[in-house]
Each structure stands twice: as C-alpha cells, then as structure tokens.
C-alpha cells in the first residue's frame, strides 16, 4: 500500500481549532520529522496503524508501556473481566491488596506499595514522602533527567514560578564529585537524592549507572538521614525483574513505577521500604481514578508474565539483533550510528550530525517504509516483535541510508533549533 497522510492532515486541521496547538506534550509530533503522523487508529502486538491505515513496526511502544504487545490477550482479558464487575468504584477492590503483595514480592527493596495513575503522580508523592520523612526540603536531582510534568519537574519553564523550583540542587549523572558537591550545597537540609536508573535523557547518548556513583548516592543518603529514590517509571522491568538498581547492587528507599507495569493500562506505583512507611502513611495523596480495579487486574496479569516468562531475555536478544544489524548497514553506506543504552531500550542517533538533520532525514525515510523510530528519545522493544520484524527494520534502514547518502548535505532542522531555544 502506498503511504498517504490525508486523514491525518485533515484531523490536524480540526485539532488546531479545538486543542491548543493541535496537540501537546511528549506525544505531539511537532518536534518530529515532517511526515510523522499525529493520530493513530489501531495497535496490535508490535504494530501500530495511523489513521490513514499505514502500518508501522512500533519502536516507541506507546513511549514504554507496551512490553508484551499491544492488546495482549491474557492481560486484556483480566482487565475486561474486572471492568465488567466494577472498575472505578467508591473504594478499591481486592486487586489493590493483591497487587501490593505481588509488587513487594517482586521488588526486593519494597515493603509497601501505593498506586496512582501517572509516573508524575508517583515521583511527586516520592518527593513529598521524603520531605515528610526528613522534615527537610532539598531534593538533589541529576541535570537533564526527566521525572514528569508537574511544575517542580516539567522541562519547559512556561507557567512555572521560581517557588515551584525552590529547594532543588542538581548534579551530573554518574559523577561522584558532582553528586557530593550537590549534597554539600544541600547542607543540613537534604531530603532526598533522585536517580534515574540509567541516564536516559533526550538528545544525548544514554549511559548505564556507574556502580560507584550508585553506591555513593546510597551512602550519602544514609549519612544524612535522607531517602534515595530511583525513578523506574520508564525502565522498570525492562532491565531487571527487580528494581533496575538491583543490577548495581543498590537498594533505594523509594522507587517509582508506571508504563510497563500494566502493559499500557493506566496505573503507576510508588514502592517503599519500611523506613518510609510512616511518612508515606501521613501525606495526603489521592485521585478519582487511582483505585480503579481493572488496571490493577491488568497489572497482576502483567506481573505473572514478568515472573513466568523469558520476556526479558527475549527483548534483550531482539535489541541485540537490531543493534548489530543496524551497525552493519550503517557501515556499508559509510555512516556511523551512536546506539547507546541497553539494547532493549535503545537510543539510536546518526553520528557526525551536529544539527540533527541526518537523523531527521533517516528517521523520516524509515517511517515511510513502515518503521516507527524516534530521532532523539530512547526507544523500546516489545516481546511481540519477531526476528522477522527486526530484519524488516534493518532492511528499511539499509534503504534509508541509501537515500541519506544520495541526499548530500542537508539544511539544519529549524524546529529543533526552536525547541532548544525554548528549553533555554
Ligand atoms: C523516568 C520517568 N519518570 C517519570 C515520568 C512521568 O511519567 P508520566 O508521563 O506517566 O507522568 C516519565 C515519563 O516518561 C519517565 O520516563
């Protein structure tokens, strides 16, 4: 089928009239190459169809939630069965207790669980609990790390006041001296150190945590009576069947979860150790949909697959097949790729591309061949992908490199320049 976008174009025009700027937030395609569709019709397994019927092998996986495939039968059956008996009720169902039991059994540092809807709910609660626990204010965070879209952490400054950002000190990820300096600056007011499980910031190469840095973060929290928070919203259960920092032998006091924990059904979680139980019990936190039973049932079914299948090894193998194949075709056409981070959570950028123009061109060409990649955000692998999907992707990449080579020098991408100026 030839690629068309007339329905998407028409919807975008209608959206402009009734939605600010037609779409907002991280799923706006405003900052993606020009042909990226804004609106989708269907998703199944590893595939996504836009409103014009174009099919893509989807390496964004809903920006993370799709771990076992869109529309996974067992997970969705659990969801539907629970929904039919009652979902958003006057109080929680039995599934809330069962899910807290399942997560605390799965995640080694966790003795208790709280549930909410979005990752930002969980990171915000973690911050409040740390402040309640210590009766101190200052939060130490890594520069450039994403923890959500509330005034205290949203990446753009519009609508945010200096008071919203008070009591925050920043350090460079993986840099022990910089972390120590930030803690010194917090002085006697340190409430928490926030850490992403890996450096998975946009636009820059991903980095695995250096174990010395992770251990030092733990020690500094212990020395100051502060809490260590690992934000596993994006990487949770994609790197390990436990908290991601179990891989470097460090247990946080709190960890935040979302995305993959229910394979796309709306639920997030905050997990904590006993030390923070009273502080957690004495903040006020709630939401109209936080206790809905059906996403909890879906999460229980997802956790069963996490416990009982080789999903993790499978996504690693798929990611490694992709990484090797892409390096090979890039080299064949005289290009280099910067493929960073764990293979199952890849960030793929074209090397020697200071303006981002080569990456935009290459990603757009992949899109036209039925592969949905992202030029500057890390991507995800789902167990629903097959080796054939990966090989198809590598062939599409081969074609896209041919076009990129033929295109010659490219103009800088104006929308990227605009975005960097906004972020300031
Ligand atoms: C590491 C991390 N923390 C927090 C969040 C916020 O999650 P949500 O968008 O569900 O509020 C995200 C979302 O991408 C994330 O990647």
Structure write-up:
The chain has 424 residues and is an alpha/beta fold. Helices cover 39% and strands 13% of the residues. It has twelve helices and 13 strands. The longest helix has 22 residues, at 311-332. The model has no long low-confidence stretch (mean pLDDT 97). Bound molecules: pyridoxal-5'-phosphate (PLP). Pyridoxal-5'-phosphate is lined by residues 63, 118-120, 123, 146-148, 196, 231, 233-234, 258.
Q: Summarize this, please?
A:
By secondary structure, the chain is α/β, with parallel strands linked by helices. 39% of the residues lie in helices and 13% in strands.
Descriptors:
4-stranded mixed sheet, single chain, binds pyridoxal-5'-phosphate, Aspartate Aminotransferase, domain 1, 424 residues, Aspartate Aminotransferase, domain 2, alpha/beta, 13% strand, 7-stranded mixed sheet, 2 domains, globular, 12 helices
CATH homology superfamily of the largest domain = Type I PLP-dependent aspartate aminotransferase-like (Major domain)
CA radius of gyration: 22 Å
Count all strands and give the number.
Answer: 13
CATH topology of the largest domain: Aspartate Aminotransferase, domain 2
Report the sheet-strand fraction. 5-15%
Which segments are poorly predicted (pLDDT under 50) over 5 or more consecutive residues?
none
Approximate shape = globular
The CATH architecture category of the largest domain equals 3-Layer(aba) Sandwich
Bound molecules: pyridoxal-5'-phosphate
State the domain count.
2
Distance between the termini: 42 Å
Mean pLDDT: 97
Structural class given helices, strands, pairing? Answer: alpha/beta
- Major β-sheet profile: 7 strands, mixed
Biggest sheet: strand arrangement: 4-10-9-8-7-5-6
The CATH class of the largest domain is identified as: Alpha Beta
Helix percent reads 25-40%
| H-E string | HEEEHHEHEEHEHEEEHHHEEHEHH
Distinct helical segment count:
12
